[in-house]
Amino acid sequence: MKDDNKKMEAFREEVFAWMKENKPSDPGFLLPQTFMEVGTEEQLDFLRKWQRKVYDAGYLGLAWPKEFGGHGLSPIYQQIADQEMALHRVPILFNVIGLGWAGPLILKNGTEDEKKKYLKGILNGDDIWCQGFSEPDHGSDLGNAQTTAVRDGDTYVINGTKIWTTFGNYSRYMILLARTNPEAKRKYDGLSFFLAPMDVPGVTANPIQKITGEYGFTETFFDNARIPTSCLMGEEGQGWTIAMQTLMFERSAEGGQASSYFMERVTMDDLIKSARTMTRDGRPLLEDPIVRDNLVQFLIEEKALALGVGRADIPALCSDYPLSLPLSGKLRATEFFRRMRQYAICLQGAKGGLYVGDDDAIEGGFWQRAYFNSFSATIGGGTSQIQANIIGEHVLGLPKG
Amino acid sequence: MLREMNIELSFDKEQAMIIKSAREFCGKKSPIASVREMVETDDGFETDSWDEMADLGWMGAAIPEEFGGFELGMGSVVPIAESMGRFMLSTPFFSTTLAGQAILRAGTLDQKKTWLPKIADGTIGTLALLDNADWGSDAIGCTATEKGGKLILNGVKWYVADAGVSEFFILSVNYKSAPALVIVNRGQLSGDAFKRHILIDETKRAFKMDFSGVAVEKSELLDPEASPAALRDLKLIGALLTAAEATGSAAAALDIIIDYLKNRMQFGKLIGSYQGLKHPTVEVLNQMEAARSHIYHAATIVGDQPLDVDMEIACRMAKAQATEALLFAGDRAVQFHGGMGFTYECDAQLYIRRAQWAQQQFGDAYHHRKRLAPLLLD
Ligand SMILES: Cc1cc2nc3c(=O)[nH]c(=O)nc-3n(C[C@H](O)[C@H](O)[C@H](O)COP(=O)(O)OP(=O)(O)OC[C@H]3O[C@@H](n4cnc5c(N)ncnc54)[C@H](O)[C@@H]3O)c2cc1C
């Protein structure tokens, strides 16, 4: 135990020093705070090089098996590396759908061949992954997805439209949910799950302009696109189960990610620092009793979130509703981030009305952009309302609607 | 420079056993039917249960071994308090634990040797801190003046919990223009000194007490050096214990909400399938869970030493969060029971009443947030 602790501390110091030494200088363009914000080639190129560098240094995939490009260590080591990255505010690890969802899924459910074929490229950033779940007419009601996959010899022929596909135009692979059996009694049973190549004829990904004005996710069309039958994960009809497993990783309800440094940490510290420069009614803003009370409320909430992460690891402190902390983490954290960023703009007075690009905008419009982008997490990965349904039904045992 | 957030949270086997036995004990002793029976009694609890709790070592949990306790600290007291809240088991556990804390933190060696072993054995004591209805005022109206080698007390105290059954009282007084703590034995008080408050939470007992004219020996003064800090810390620990109890009660309110939502039908459907009820119920859960995280964190870091800033932050945050959680849970428990929720018979009333009481004890959420602001923002 003591030895372990020493090793960990030594490792932490090593990562600390490396991050300090290797943190990239300002590239001169806006760096994304989350992977869903990547919108330009130069951003992508920059983040790809950065992920490669972190991987080569040995700070990514620490808990994944050695044979697939990892380091075979305890997950604690990745946590340490992630904490140090957050502390130094280095650029995020961008290949999230691979590192965070598809990767752990393949590790848990995949065949030896799939592990060999995909995992290394996820870690070193060579292969970008995207997720083809949502469709224009079926988002929250994902089980009703209508994109079809029809078997024809040793290929599946894919037809249909996916939408809101983050990295759709940059990806080599997609985790794809498609219907192999339209006749299935339950809509869920007709679905299958594919690890699909994107560089086949018949796939088109058109970027969509986002609320922030930037381009990001795509609408992704499949027009008689043929993919090898070997792309099917598991068996036909298991798509829904595998998709739900994927969402457990996506919502951080289950561990196994190559890293979890997918988001730059914006904390109450940042908001308070920002607020210190502001005035209201001719006085320092932080003297205003109502503002003070609001900020303290946010701080209490922020601390509860941080404490909940540690508490989830102590079963004796999670009696009554043992699934509550893991299943509610996404809802509580993303809603907190959204409200806190919204409040940040409210504090700015007249400058709250300025946006990215205006020289007078506070911190270059950071909070305005951050507020808009915060919806990516309250909508993506299952909306907050859907999360509330899940918690109500699966944690509290309330009847389905 | 902003403070680094302290998020320590740890837990050992002994505490796990205490949680388990506290839940079992409180669950067994305090089904709702008996909570309602206790409401009708003078003292609000059963002596037999109290004796059993003493045998289990609960009153000695936070008392050092050298004074006859188990030296388990707040890490164990907090989960016991939570379990009591969970099953609405009202006993003088809170008053007695706090009286013990007063003596532990500010008592002379003689006082510790006299009182702490008795407390661990189940002797009931209580604090008398509040001079009027304002938790936020630090001014102490009660006075102690020297006369003929004794201290003559003067003044009234509010909300003296469990005074009806207490063997001793620890009073905050103004003595030589400084805050001091003094022990008063029950035998020194006449019946006129006690006036029972009619509390909004009928499971609780508290009194307005007139100490005017009571004469005590000077040896009953707690250590004047340690008293001001102890007084401040007692209010923080009182807030923490109230928070722990409130968190348990919020979980209990959630239970009855869920139970009703799973059984009551309207428009041919179980009402729990309506999101108008389901989603706020999830919010009750999340608020309760946030309170739990805060109370366990405070329980982890608060020790026998004077409270440092991190501990003060932890106690205040715990109280602010738990108060809000229970207010919301009790309020929704009434609403979600419809007409039934408006009745005395419906258990929702127990929780909405507990919520109003717990909110005020040792300061409401705003009181604590106001005191957190300078610690966190300046
Ligand atoms: C930035 C961003 C990135 C994304 N990236 C991807 C990606 O890479 N791959 C991918 O597949 N998808 C992605 N998504 C899509 C996302 O998963 C869906 O947008 C989401 O699941 C909601 O589906 P929808 O957009 O069809 O909204 P709808 O399902 O139509 O929802 C509309 C509104 O109705 C509410 N609602 C719907 N059903 C219920 C219900 N049963 N109870 C209560 N309220 C309900 C919703 O909460 C929402 O407020 C992304 C989304 C965003 C915003």
Please explain how this structure is put together.
The complex is a heterodimer of chains A (401) and B (378). Chain A has 11 helices and 10 strands. The mean pLDDT of chain A is 95. Chain A is of the alpha+beta class and 401 residues long. In chain A, helix 9 (324-347) packs antiparallel against helix 10. Chain A has 3 domains: 2-93 and 120-126, Orthogonal Bundle (Butyryl-Coa Dehydrogenase, subunit A, domain 1), CATH 1.10.540; 130-250, Butyryl-CoA Dehydrogenase, subunit A, domain 2; 268-395, Butyryl-CoA Dehydrogenase, subunit A, domain 3 (Up-down Bundle), CATH 1.20.140. In chain A, the strands form 3 sheets. Chain A has a 4-stranded mixed beta sheet. Chain B has 378 residues and is of the alpha+beta class. Among the domains of chain B are: 127-220, Butyryl-CoA Dehydrogenase, subunit A, domain 2; 227-376, Up-down Bundle (Butyryl-CoA Dehydrogenase, subunit A, domain 3). Helix content of chain B is 52%, strand content 13%. Chain B is built from 12 helices and 11 strands. Chain B has helices at residues 13-29, 32-39, 47-56, 74-86, 93-106, 109-121, 227-263, 275-301, 309-335, 338-341, 348-360, 365-377, and strands at residues 125-128, 143-147, 150-154, 156-161, 168-175, 178-185, 194-196, 206-210, 215-217, 265-266, 269-270. In chain B, strands 1, 2, 3, 5, 6 and 9 form a 6-stranded mixed beta sheet that branches. In chain B, strands 4-8-7 form a 3-stranded antiparallel beta sheet, with no helix packed on it. A two-stranded antiparallel ribbon of chain B has the order 10-11. Chain B is globular. Chains A and B meet through helix 7, helix 8, helix 9 and helix 11 of A and helix 1, helix 7, strand 11, helix 8 and helix 9 of B. The complex binds flavin-adenine dinucleotide (FAD). Flavin-adenine dinucleotide binds at residues 36, 130-134, 139-140, 164-166, 217, 376, 379-383, 385-386, 389 of chain A.
